[in-house]
Amino acid sequence: MAIQSDMDLPLLLYEPKQPLDYESKRAYNLKVEATNVRSEPGSGGPFKDTATVKITVEDSDEPPVFSKPIYQLEVNENAPINTIIGTVTARDPDSTGSQVRYFIDRHTDLERQFNINVDDGKITLAKLLDRETDMWHNITVTATEVRNHSQISRAIVAIRVMDINDNAPEFATEYEAFLCENGKPGQVIQTVSAVDKDDPIQGHYFNYRLVPEMLNNPNFTIKNNQDNSISVLAKHDTFRRQKQEMYFLPIIVTDNGHPPMSSTNTLTIRVCGCSKDGIVQSCNVEAYVLPIGLSMGALIAILACIVLLLVIVVLFVTLRRHKNEPLIIKDDEDVRENIIRYDDEGGGEEDTEAFDIATLQNPDGINGYLPRKDIKPDLQFMPRAGQHSGPNGVDVDEFINVRLHEADNDPTAPPYDSIQIYGYEGRGSIAGSLSSLETTSSDSDQNYDYLREWGPRFRRLGELYSVGESDRET
């Protein structure tokens, strides 16, 4: 704010040094003194004056305020659903004191594992929690004024999942121990340790023991190393691969939780052949049946070479077979690009080489065979010019139909009209020849009475000729 003089010149500019709070103090009274900087000699100056300035703080709508910026809550991992985890509180700092509603920002709780009461801010469990999956859950809670939903404030709620003993200990890894045939009694075969997903406050302590049916095991025993691990020891030196190649030793591991949890884990012990220094060389019984000096790795290499040679031979035979086969080039392009045009046509029925015309000739006059006499017409036919392919190719069906129509209507194209003389009537008929080609008698000299004697097949023919003779006589 500024204080103005009578000459409307700014004399003072006031700025607050800290935020003002209407709810804390609503008014301020300031005493302001104004002094002339210059004064004339003998005027009795400099002159000054004081004034009281009253500043009134106006109220503004502010968002709710949480009692804590960060809340830290704890819940056991075996807590049932709807368990109350904790409560968050917020208030409206305005004088009106609007009611506040609470919500969980679901972007921070995608799996919806928690719920909150909108009126009192109590956070409850919506799903079962597993500490071994997530130890901490950080969610954001919002507080909103009922009268003005735009006034929102946020607070972070960190929820720690407390551990309970709900996981049994187990081997740290899948152990596979190797035992030398020439080993000594009491030698350490394998050192075994365990892990537990739980995290007790007092730390882990594991107890190892053999299963009850293995307490009197004649082959192996265990020794506690006092550091949450044990050593597996051999009791004798008479282990042989031919007798037994593999042993299984079940061991029970128990933790110190409340209540304690335990699990049974099996240790696999394989009997191997070792050098004098105790270095494992072979653990398979099959090594005894192999030839002297031939190891399993060498046998695998030999088998791999044989398989490779067989593959090479098969490929060679396949290539030779394909080489002898004729090459067939298949063109998968558009059929319109592979059309070959021919302007000539076949001879059609003019070609008489397809059948034997001698069967229609007189066998008695083969030497006097008369060739066929074709008569070629004098009319000249102008062939139609072939169609040219358009931009999109030729319509094959239309092309064939046009050529077929032209060939059918072309009088100059073969086959021509032909005269064929057949002078052979046939042989073997009981009636003899009915032809008058080789007789010199005329129709008037013929007597057809014998037709009646030929039977019912020629009866009608005899009646016709008999009628003709009677008519001639009359």
From TrEMBL:
<dbReference type="GO" id="GO:0016339">
    <property type="term" value="P:calcium-dependent cell-cell adhesion via plasma membrane cell adhesion molecules"/>
</dbReference>
<dbReference type="GO" id="GO:0005509">
    <property type="term" value="F:calcium ion binding"/>
</dbReference>
<dbReference type="InterPro" id="IPR027397">
    <property type="entry name" value="Catenin-bd_sf"/>
</dbReference>
<dbReference type="InterPro" id="IPR002126">
    <property type="entry name" value="Cadherin-like_dom"/>
</dbReference>
<feature type="domain" description="Cadherin">
    <location>
        <begin position="18"/>
        <end position="66"/>
    </location>
</feature>
<dbReference type="InterPro" id="IPR015919">
    <property type="entry name" value="Cadherin-like_sf"/>
</dbReference>
<dbReference type="GO" id="GO:0005912">
    <property type="term" value="C:adherens junction"/>
</dbReference>
<dbReference type="GO" id="GO:0016477">
    <property type="term" value="P:cell migration"/>
</dbReference>
<keyword id="KW-0130">Cell adhesion</keyword>
<dbReference type="InterPro" id="IPR000233">
    <property type="entry name" value="Cadherin_Y-type_LIR"/>
</dbReference>
<dbReference type="GO" id="GO:0043679">
    <property type="term" value="C:axon terminus"/>
</dbReference>
<dbReference type="GO" id="GO:0043083">
    <property type="term" value="C:synaptic cleft"/>
</dbReference>
<keyword id="KW-1003">Cell membrane</keyword>
<dbReference type="GO" id="GO:0034332">
    <property type="term" value="P:adherens junction organization"/>
</dbReference>
<keyword id="KW-0106">Calcium</keyword>
<keyword id="KW-0965">Cell junction</keyword>
<feature type="domain" description="Cadherin">
    <location>
        <begin position="67"/>
        <end position="171"/>
    </location>
</feature>
<dbReference type="InterPro" id="IPR039808">
    <property type="entry name" value="Cadherin"/>
</dbReference>
<protein>
    <submittedName>
        <fullName>Cadherin-8</fullName>
    </submittedName>
</protein>
<feature type="transmembrane region" description="Helical">
    <location>
        <begin position="288"/>
        <end position="317"/>
    </location>
</feature>
<dbReference type="GO" id="GO:0044331">
    <property type="term" value="P:cell-cell adhesion mediated by cadherin"/>
</dbReference>
<keyword id="KW-0472">Membrane</keyword>
<dbReference type="Pfam" id="PF01049">
    <property type="entry name" value="CADH_Y-type_LIR"/>
</dbReference>
<dbReference type="GO" id="GO:0002009">
    <property type="term" value="P:morphogenesis of an epithelium"/>
</dbReference>
<dbReference type="GO" id="GO:0008013">
    <property type="term" value="F:beta-catenin binding"/>
</dbReference>
<dbReference type="GO" id="GO:0007043">
    <property type="term" value="P:cell-cell junction assembly"/>
</dbReference>
<dbReference type="GO" id="GO:0016342">
    <property type="term" value="C:catenin complex"/>
</dbReference>
<keyword id="KW-0325">Glycoprotein</keyword>
<dbReference type="GO" id="GO:0007156">
    <property type="term" value="P:homophilic cell adhesion via plasma membrane adhesion molecules"/>
</dbReference>
<comment type="function">
    <text>Cadherins are calcium-dependent cell adhesion proteins.</text>
</comment>
<keyword id="KW-0479">Metal-binding</keyword>
<feature type="domain" description="Cadherin">
    <location>
        <begin position="171"/>
        <end position="293"/>
    </location>
</feature>
<dbReference type="GO" id="GO:0000902">
    <property type="term" value="P:cell morphogenesis"/>
</dbReference>
<dbReference type="GO" id="GO:0045296">
    <property type="term" value="F:cadherin binding"/>
</dbReference>
<keyword id="KW-0812">Transmembrane</keyword>
<dbReference type="Pfam" id="PF00028">
    <property type="entry name" value="Cadherin"/>
</dbReference>
<dbReference type="InterPro" id="IPR020894">
    <property type="entry name" value="Cadherin_CS"/>
</dbReference>
<keyword id="KW-0677">Repeat</keyword>
<keyword id="KW-1133">Transmembrane helix</keyword>
